[in-house]
Structures are given as C-alpha cells and as structure tokens.
C-alpha cells in the first residue's frame, strides 16, 4: 500500500482510497482527542482549525503516521481501521435496502425458527449471544421451557435490556376482559400488526409470554414486514414509494388520560433509503391526511396490497405457545397476529415492551467479550 | 355547502373539497367499523371491497349521509370532522418545516422561560396542562421549589409519563467521579448536545434535577436545535440538505457489557420534510462513513457551521439550578450544555430519561378533560 498527499494537503490517497484531512483529524484516537478510559471524544469540531491540512504522511507496517497543520500535531492510525471506515465509494443501493446484519424471511423460516431454551440463555453467555444474534438478524426469536409464573417475561427482558413502561404498565395481561380498553384484551382474532404505532418512539421490542393456553385457537403468527415491503417494491415500485414517502397517522385514546397520536410512514426509510421501520395496524390507523388528493387512490391501493401480502400464508410463521414459552419480536419490523379463540379453556399471556438497542448492544458486547466472529 | 358525486362514485365533492370513496368508507365511525368503547377500528382494509363507490350523498345540517356500494351500507359523517381532515390541498412547505404546535426560539426566550412551581403542577391539573403545553411547544421547561431529596425527579417524570430505564439506570447521578464511565461525570464543561444519540430510539425526554449546587460554575444552557437548523438552512440551504440527507454515526462503549451504535442524520426530517429530530454530540460522534467522498468536505463545513450556530450566545438560554429545581428538555430537539465547575463546594444533579409521547398524550388528554382551547 502507498500513501500520497493530494489536493494541497486537504486529503490523502491511501492505496487508491481517499480520506479528507478534516475527517482524519476528527477521527484521531490519541489520548488528547479521545478519552482512553471511556473512548469518548474530548474535543469538538470547533477545536480543530478550519483549514486543517496534512503536511506529512508516512506508512510503516500497518500504521499510517500523519502530521496536521496548523496544529503541528502528529497522529498514528491503524490502516485496517481506516480501510474498514473508508467512504470513498459510490452508493448504488436503491430505496429499501437493508443492512448486512438483516436477513429477510417468509414461511420457509418455519423449519428453522430462531429458538433457544430459557435455561440455556440465562446461564450460558455464548448461547445468549447466539439467540440475540438471531433476534437481531431475523427480528424474531422464541424461548421455551421458561418458568410458568407471573412476571417471568421480565426475566426475558433483563437478558438484553430494560422494560419500556407505558400506559399499559410495566407488563400487561393479554386475556379476555369485560369492557376491554384494547381489542387485544378480547378473544377476537387480530390481523398481523405492529404494536403501538401511535407511540413515538414506538417500543422497538415486544415480548409475549404464555402462562395458560388451553383455549381452542389463539395460535400466534409472525410475518417479516421487511420481506413484505420488499415484495411490494418488486411488484409495484410506485406503491412502495407512496407508502414510504407519505406519512400515515395513528391514534389511541381508548382509556382515560391517554391520547396518543403519531404521524409516520408505514414503510420508514433512512434518508439514504435504508429500510428502518414498518408500522401497520388497522385498529389504531387514524385518518390519513398527508397524502395529496392526486395520490390518495394509488396510496390506498398500495396499502391494500401490502395488507394482502402480509395476510398471505406464504409469508407467515405460526405456532401455538405452551405455558413457559414466549416469543420476542423487533416491533419496528416483524408483525404479529393471533387467531381468534373460544371461551372454553383459558388463554393468558403477559406482554411487555423493551428496545432493540439493548438487543444489539448486548449482542455486540458479548461477541467482543467471547471473541466470537461478528455476524 | 353542497355535495356532488364525482368520478363515477369514486369520490365526492363537498363544498369544493374532494374526498375519495375508499377513504370515506375506511374512516366511517359507525359501531360496526369502530368500537364505541375504545375507539379502535374493528375492520381491516381487506374487509372493504376494492371497487367501493358512493351511490348516494345527502347533506342535512352538519351531517353528510353517504351510501356505499357494493356493501349497500349507509354512513353518517360530521362535516366539521371532514373539513378538519381534508387532504385535497397542495403542499408548498419546503424541507425543515415545523408543525403548528412548535415555536422555535433563541436567547430571547430568556425573559419568558416556560416555568412553573413544582407544587402547582403536582396539585392543579390546569397548571400541569399549561406547563406540559409549554414543554410541547418550546421543547423545554423548568420547575422550581421541588423537594430536595434523592429520586425527586421520578415525581417529575410521573407527571406526564414513564421513566425510560437504560444502562445508566432508572436514574443516574451527575457529579464528579473517579474513573468516570462518561465525561458527564466529571467537572468538565460540556458543549451543547443531545443525549444518547447512540441509542435507537433515543430517549426523547431528559430531566436534570438539582440537589446540590454550591460549586463555582456549572451553569446550564439550553439551545433550540430546530432554531439552529433553521438558521443553517437560511444561511446555507446545501449544508442543511447535506446534514439531513446523510446519516451520521454515534457510538458509546464506555462501560462493560455496553456497545451502543446508531446511524441517523444530525438533522432528521420526516419523508415530507417536517423537521423531527436533532442529534448533536461531539463526545459520542463516531466516524462518519455514509457521506460520499465528493460531499464530505461540504458536509464537514456544514457540521462545523451548525456547531458555531449552536455555540452562539444569541441562541442560548442559561440559568443556574438551585437545589429543588429541575429542567426538562425534548431531547430530540433541544440541546443542553453546562459550564465547567471547580472542586470547591459541591454540585450534584440527578438525571433520568422519559419520552415525549407521554408529554403530548397527557397534555392532549388534559386539554380535552378540562375543556381548554387546544394549542
């Protein structure tokens, strides 16, 4: 590899890959720039002179030594780190791309549901890393053989993060109620949906934990919303564009003191097109008023088609939970549904919310700690 | 007002404002469509026939009566509700618009800081509604005269919502520590920042509550990130575009078992250009790798300029908290900073996170309950 100073020191060329002087100086890892203990940056961009240039560049082994002016400061970089953080490339990804760590799925996942035994993940850090890795990758995971006791789902949340408390409580009871404040608390079947799209930010993880399930029916289904959106995009790029370009609205005001409203798209993209979220919930969809008249019919057609894809058995993984079993979903991606159930026997689940950043953080820290290959 | 069926029943014209048949049918509020108890929709779009048209339309007083085919279903609408949800208009808003409920501010807010007495908001629901309304509108509010006791900030969170627990705990101590896991736990001055941009979703509310503050220095400042972004857009539309179009990256791995990473823009826009979030934090900014080489220098120039605007005293509201006082910010909008402080005397704050949806929901429910004019 060779290094050359280019553009009068405003950048360097390292083996054909260019880096700007200001970017390099900002990403210095010396002890004056980054705290050696906690890794946080000790300076702000305002502390780096505006006309910063590279005046000397020298390579030896895996290290690049740069001198910056006007500071007269010398910094050493690991060339492997630099190549891993290179940005001198052309982005050819279209709208709705997903990152390397994401694997979309359909009913074919049925035979390889990301599953683990509760005791294993509670006791063995490698088993936990594996299960969390599946949850990050597929947005879905099951645990079996857990304790059949109230509040056991809080132990599941504690494996990777913290409960997101809401107006429904730290945890909520999913069973038939008289005068239900939410249709989830009835025996009705529920179309596949993401939970609480009327909340902003939505809870990004949901845990549903089974304590009793002798009723007829009440099977659970999960569907990968990213896979459904990809299928819509292939069939009908304009429909995908409409559902991602315009905001839908969601609302819940079903109990006293609560009036939750949001305005977000059904298919959420990062500004560079990465697919980052799905919101789909017929029960709490409010009037859509942010789509202009000229696009509303096509928007509704796309909304209908997305629902048909979501309802397609070819997309669905289904199972019936036994007491002591639970499933966990990335609620910004994977929809869940249940079949209606009858009044004979009993069905009692407990639910709670948590967040995906805890899943990803705990997984990344375990991978590092255990020296596992990063996924 | 007059009503006419147009486009072979696929839409109606109500006093010059058009509505589609499918939109109208989907937004019916009759007891078969919406649960009269909790307001949730009982049907999904799949339950409404694809070729739905209006076959009869009749107006009387404030009610519009429509008949839909092929269902043969008659539904009555409040015309006031329809006009309030009209979507037959042209959107002329440019990137970075903010909603009606948002008022951006600069140092001029100093003389009218949204402030209330702790006892008032704790006891009087109208006072609470007023204070929460200010927090929603300005993204910032102070409370004075609260109890000087550990954990008092949890009472503030309970006024409107629920604590967002994180790896820092349900609450965290902000005071000088030996071997700090975060630079916040030192006497260093901190540039104005939003908290935890490496979390996804970020905590959307932060509460900082003062228990001791006899140290010299340690004043707090708050800055309206939306106002700063608006100023950047006026000075340099391309810089605003770059900071909103490309993702930055943030990271925190300063303590064991934690490895939080995010990829989000510094200025976040909804797909239709609404400004919905600011992320700005020099300490946890990671290498920016999603900006192509050709745009990186201009991106850095915009990043620098945004920081200069944020640092401009003309944008800043500052104050020194006394024991029993706290401030609350919308952490997706308002940045906070502190001046460095010395070792003489003591400074002890407690902090916790919560979410803006609780602020907006509690405020909206109080406005409704008390019959106040909605802001």
Describe this entry's structure for a reader.
Chain A has 375 residues and is α+β, with helices and mostly antiparallel strands. The first copy, chain A, folds into 2 domains: 3-84, 2-Layer Sandwich (NE0471 N-terminal domain-like), CATH 3.30.2020.30; 107-370, Double-stranded beta-helix, CATH 3.60.130.10. Chain A is 25% helix and 27% strand. Chain A contains 9 helices and 20 strands. In chain A, the strands form 6 sheets. In chain A, strands 7-8-18-11-20-9 form a 6-stranded mixed sheet. In chain A, strands 10-19-12-17 form a 4-stranded antiparallel sheet. In chain A, a hairpin with a 2-residue loop joins strand 2 and strand 3. In chain A, helix 4 (125-138) packs across helix 9 (356-370) and helix 6 crosses helix 8 (293-311). The longest helix of chain A has 19 residues, at 293-311. The radius of gyration of chain A is 25 Å and the shape is globular. The relative contact order of chain A is 0.17. The mean pLDDT of chain A is 95. Chains A and B meet through helix 1, strand 14, helix 8 and helix 9 of A and helix 1, strand 14, helix 8 and helix 9 of B.
């Amino acid at each position: 590899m060779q290094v050359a100073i280019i553009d009068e020191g405003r950048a360097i060329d390292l083996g054909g890959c260019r880096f700007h002087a200001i970017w390099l100086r900002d990403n210095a890892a010396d002890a004056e720039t980054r705290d050696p203990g906690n890794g946080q940056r000790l300076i702000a961009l305002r502390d780096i002179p505006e006309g910063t240039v590279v005046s000397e560049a020298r390579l030896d082994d895996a290290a690049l030594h740069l001198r910056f002016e006007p500071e007269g400061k010398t910094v050493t970089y690991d060339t492997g780190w630099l190549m891993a953080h290179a940005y001198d490339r052309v982005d050819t990804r279209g709208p709705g791309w997903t990152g390397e760590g994401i694997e979309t799925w359909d009913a074919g996942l049925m035979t390889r549901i990301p599953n683990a035994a509760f005791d294993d993940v509670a006791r063995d850090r490698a088993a936990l890393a594996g299960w969390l890795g599946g949850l990050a990758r597929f947005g879905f995971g099951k645990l079996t053989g857990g304790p059949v006791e109230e509040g056991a789902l809080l132990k599941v949340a504690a494996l990777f993060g913290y409960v997101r408390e809401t107006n429904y409580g730290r945890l909520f009871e999913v069973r038939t109620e008289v005068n239900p404040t939410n249709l989830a608390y009835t025996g009705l079947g529920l179309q596949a949906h993401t939970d609480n799209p009327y909340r902003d930010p939505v809870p990004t993880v949901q845990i549903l934990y089974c304590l009793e399930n002798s009723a007829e029916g009440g099977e659970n289904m999960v569907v990968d919303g990213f896979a459904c959106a990809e299928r819509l995009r292939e069939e009908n790029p304009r429909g995908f564009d409409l559902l991602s370009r315009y905001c839908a609205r969601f609302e819940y005001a079903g109990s006293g003191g609560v009036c939750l409203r949001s305005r977000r798209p059904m298919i959420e993209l990062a500004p560079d097109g990465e697919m980052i979220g799905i919101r789909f919930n017929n029960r709490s969809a409010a009037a859509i008023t942010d789509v202009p008249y000229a696009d509303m019919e096509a928007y509704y057609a796309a909304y209908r088609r997305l629902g048909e894809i979501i309802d397609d058995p070819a997309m669905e993984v289904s199972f019936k939970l036994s007491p002591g079993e639970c499933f966990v979903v990335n609620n910004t991606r994977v929809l869940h549904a249940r079949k209606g159930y009858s009044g004979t026997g009993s069905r009692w689940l407990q639910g709670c919310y948590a967040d995906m950043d805890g899943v990803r953080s705990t997984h990344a820290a375990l991978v590092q700690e255990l020296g596992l290959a990063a996924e």
